[in-house]
């Protein structure tokens, strides 16, 4: 992956990276209000904690984890699915076999996969990262990423069949995992 | 969500964001640009970023404000330790006062586990931490500080003009310092309001008055 960005103060990072973080949260949560709250909450927290230097990769992971924490709560899931604006998902360039990973599938998978697998899932199928990029961002080996993706594919295959119609899945995917 | 076919390994969203920000080194930027020239799917993704670039972010709270808030909380904690018995009595008094007329500061806490509530107010794009006042239509977020291990369910209530509303669904959080409660709500009306967060048997309130 490309060189890491220079660390910035939280307010500077908010100005520079806030829009990118908001777009990322919107891809995952598929609604503007909750995505805005996640990003605002993250930076308010950084300011409150007096964190003075943050960089893009840290923010990227933090937004992923905060979005997944929201999704993990069953009561939030219902609200998120109600508010879902599918267009915010953006172009689905990477699919898990035949399945586009959207909010509905993400919600179902959150009950079947642990935090580390869910993070890799978001990196691969919502952030469209290569295995090398995921390994670097998550500070793990490419082999571990590959194993997690395999596990994810198994879970998606189990769960995906029942939501295939809702998620708009279909053949013709590119950028497979192997 | 539309499906698009990439001509090879898609340029990740992170790489696209860095490309737009000019943060990629020359080699990587060249490779990304070459891919974009050949790949309509990745150009479409880039288009999503470029079409969103002018959408404004609400401003962040001022660092100095945040530091002042931290200092206030710190002083409060020291004072509470020094005069614990007096503070307990004062808390009881403040809880009683809150029922009659909400005060502008932290008005009460109870229960075995301490809970502290913080507020973030957004007004026309301006953000204030722990405000004492509100105008109708101001948007509020609640921050909770708690020490309980593991997950805990938070309920937010607003008492105003003799009625109690629950503007947010109960939500499970992991305790910590100033943990944002998901969701936000707007205050209306011209009566003082008391915004409370309850967590298990403990609760804390903060009062805001009309400006």
Coarse morphology of chain B: elongated
Quote the average pLDDT of chain B. Answer: 77
Biggest interface, residues from each chain:
A-B, 63 and 57 residues
Count of runs of 4 or more consecutive helical residues of chain A: 8
Q: Which oligomeric state applies?
A: heterodimer
Counting helices, strands and paired strands, the structural category of chain A is mainly alpha
E-strand count of chain A: 0
Following the backbone from N to C, one meets helices and strands of chain A in this order, namely: HHHHHHHH
Taken in chain order, the helices and strands of chain B follow as HHHHHEEEEEEEEEEEE
Low-confidence stretches of chain A: 167-178
Q: Roughly how many Å apart are the termini of chain A?
A: 18 Å
Q: How would you describe this protein?
A:
The complex is a heterodimer of chains A (178) and B (211). Chain A is globular and about 45 Å long. Chain A is 66% helix and 0% strand. In chain A, α1 (10-29) runs antiparallel to α2. Chain A is an all-alpha fold and 178 residues long. Chain B has helices at residues 13-21, 26-38, 40-52, 63-82, 84-100; strands at 106-110, 115-123, 126-129, 133-134, 139-146, 151-160, 163-165, 171-174, 179-180, 185-186, 193-199, 202-210. In chain B, β6 (151-160) and β7 (163-165) form a beta hairpin. Classes of the chains: A mainly alpha (178), B alpha+beta (211). The interface between A and B is large, with 63 and 57 residues.
Q: In a few lines, what is going on in this structure?
A:
The complex is a heterodimer of chains A (178) and B (211). Chain A has 178 residues and is mainly alpha-helical.
Layout of SSEs?
The complex is a heterodimer of chains A (178) and B (211).
Chain A: H1 10-29, H2 32-48, H3 56-72, H4 74-83, H5 103-110, H6 115-125, H7 131-138, H8 142-167
Helix pairs in contact in A: 1-2, 1-3, 2-3, 3-6, 5-8, 6-8, 7-8
Chain B: H1 13-21, H2 26-38, H3 40-52, H4 63-82, H5 84-100, E1 106-110, E2 115-123, E3 126-129, E4 133-134, E5 139-146, E6 151-160, E7 163-165, E8 171-174, E9 179-180, E10 185-186, E11 193-199, E12 202-210
Parallel strand pairs in B: 4-12
Antiparallel strand pairs in B: 1-12, 2-3, 2-5, 5-9, 5-10, 6-7, 6-8, 6-11, 11-12
Helix pairs in contact in B: 1-3, 2-3
